[in-house]
Design goal:
A: Rossmann fold; six-stranded mixed sheet; four-stranded antiparallel sheet; globular; B: Rossmann fold; 2 domains
Chain lengths: 277, 287
Amino acid sequence: MSDIMIKADNVTYEYKSLIDDNIHQAVKEISLEVKKGEFLVILGHNGSGKSTLAKLMNGLIMPTNGNVYVAGMDTQDEKNIWNIREKAGMVFQNPDNQIVATIVEEDVAFGPENLGIDPKEIRARVDKALEVVEMTEYKKHAPHLLSGGQKQRVGIAGILAMNPDCIILDEPTAMLDPIGRIEVMNTIKKLNKNENKTIILITHYMDEAVEADRILVMEQGQIVMEGCPRNIFKQVDKIKELGLDVPQVTELVYELRKAGINLKDDIISIEELVELL
Amino acid sequence: MIMKINNLNYIYNPNTPFEKKALDNINLEINEGEFIGLIGHTGSGKSTLVQHLNGLIKPSSGAIIIDGVNITDKDVNLKEIRQKVGLVFQYPEHQLFEETIYKDIAFGPKNLGLSDDEVDKRVKESMELVGLDFEALKDRSPFELSGGQKRRVAIAGVIAMKPKILVLDEPTAGLDPHGRDEILGEIQKLYDKEGITIILVSHSMEDIAKLVQRILVMHRGKLEMDGKPREIFKKVDELENLGLGVPQITKFMKIFKEKGNHVNDDILTVHEAKEEILKFLRRKKDA
């Protein structure tokens, strides 16, 4: 078995603009590999092509040129599509748009039911999934009465019940309050560390990005930066030029260095900076 | 004083098993020209409070006096109140509906019965205030714009009503850092230029720390804290207990001080932290 979860080979995605009828390239000649078990974060400002890339990764859209492989299967081969969606599940920004049932556990069961899985197995999967996202005590509740963070965790449980190897999350915390964000991020970290799921997280929050193994930064449909969080965030000028942010502690170190203080430049957390000073 | 709230209570589903006190005896005074940040986790009552301010919800008990008028009176003119208090909801771009940007922004002022000239003037002014090019964009469809631009059109539509109080509920939710900085910059500009009273609801403590002069903290329907950002953000543990945080830089300075380093932890921005740390390092060198 190869250790590559997702592979994009020279992928371009074109669409015709509704505004000016011109052809635009949302993704331009991207090649990348995501390893099994990796925690990858994709950054980039709105319109940089991140969400398009995510949708290419589980066959929601097909490349205009090039190929995307999920666990070795080509997304353009129609007979693979259900297997691919089982391997790579996707979680979107607004939890309200993803909830289909009126009871939490029924919502989580919806995916596996559609796969035609044996009811006993579904029961086991739903219980396990709710346990992982720590929502077991809410299994009989109505989803619309839950908080945003709880709803988003139910959404994640619904994906988990499909037993995917890889979960792609497109700004899953954008609509949540600080508690909801922490809950969802803790769930994501747990999926990666304890459940060995490959995670691809699209986010605008730099404090979430520092948790990744690797970061990709996109701009105009291309990958313009790639590396571990330390190496990405120490390039403060470049990150800001791309319309993004760095953690405040990283910015402080950058400012102190500019003022002539000799410090290590790859600080990304409060604890590290306290140690350093 | 532009706004005064006395003993405001609001109960959802009264006399049913689902009865819930959403606002619990709120007392509050706001002066004209204040820039206020309203924080609290989901369900703390901040949106319920905000919806009371222009009469979208009637209180269960208590009074709300805006610009001298008690808006809970039976015979109050709600149209007038809604003009005085402009409310920009979360994801306001979902409310755009007209064919052109001009028409969308003009919709409110037109309904006030203003002359065409006045409407025209207001559309121009408000587009300029939110950084949209009038000539280039007025005849375009609002639906062709990017998310951040759509949001500006929606905000311009509220500003064109010339409210005395502008309430913005999470104006930067879902935007990227650049879009966020732009919108916040425009809100600041609007405040500096027009001197209106602004109430900003936000989950981002960094944004709140940068902009506002006074912070209100809501928790379980109560007004839990009320003070200057420096005073409020000093209460790191209390805020965290309420499910809120402080800016990362504020937290760093506090932890750094707790480790026995002699610094002032009364810090809200990276710039302030830099000055303080530089002072600290110089003292250390001299010692």
